[in-house]
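Late entry, written up from scratch paper. The run itself happened at the end of the previous shift, but nothing got recorded in the book at the time, so transcribing now.
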Amino acid sequence: MNKLNIRALQARGAALAEANRAHTRPVVLLYCGVLALLTLGSSGLNLYLSDQIGTTGGLGGIGIRSLLETVQELLSYINIFFGTYWAAGFLAAMLTMVRGESPKCGDLTAGFRRPFQVLGFMVFEYAVIFALMMASAYPAALIFSFTPLGADFAELIAPYVAASGAVDLAAVPIEALIEAMVPMLLLTMAIFLPLYAFVFYGYRMALYLMMDQKLGAIQAHFLSARLMKGHRWQICKLDLSFWWYYALLALASAVGYLDVIVGLMGIPLPIDPLVLFFGTLVLYCAAVTALSLWKKCDVEAAYVLAFEEIANPEPAATE
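Output as recorded:
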């Protein structure tokens, strides 16, 4: 097993990105521009649908209201699906760059040219998350039920337990029920997060394998788990080495929710709410685009180089 040199990967990734800056700039601009249009368009449509839902009160509007709410849900799924396919295309562009060729805007459509494989990737990932969450909830429920952590919950529901032993949870005050269930939720997350981290790093190279070797989703995940044996912590250290990049992305996301943050803090602003809503979204898109132009290719190239070393290790030198 070859040990990854984190600093060397960073340096090589930055050098590759700099050498290909003229080719990667239009790719990054198209990548971020399309995502920005999707964000602004879907947010605007979602806001419009929310306003329309507010006008469909009463039983007479229940059909229209259900239809509009369904469209809102579809919008969120469209964002997730498109984002994954688009990210797969950017990964294909970075693979092209690392292999010594010039990345092109057309590379961004690579995910859409493999629709069923990328769809299978998403389904497999979400199925794993669901299975891990269920696996975490069971021991958490046992600990919660048979330790003092569940004492407040037991005391709360005691008046609502029927002679048959059934509990009428619908009659329990919702605020009190949520408060009593907080330890259960924390226990579940305490079990889920380490499990998810272990599995996540095992499957970390699945999308790379799919886009590089054109494997199916299940085959790519299982091959990734095999290749990542002994490399999980090294890739984790590579993630940690880019903490500043992810911190800046988080800051840009906070800008996108600035209108919500200001509202929660109770700070009055002399700005029309609609202008503030779209203004923060535009600022978010601009911040992400600027950050991506600056360092996205450097970071992604380092990950592709790590994938290259893991998937195609050089044979150890012999005396």
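The mean pLDDT is 89.
(Scratch paper discarded after transcription.)
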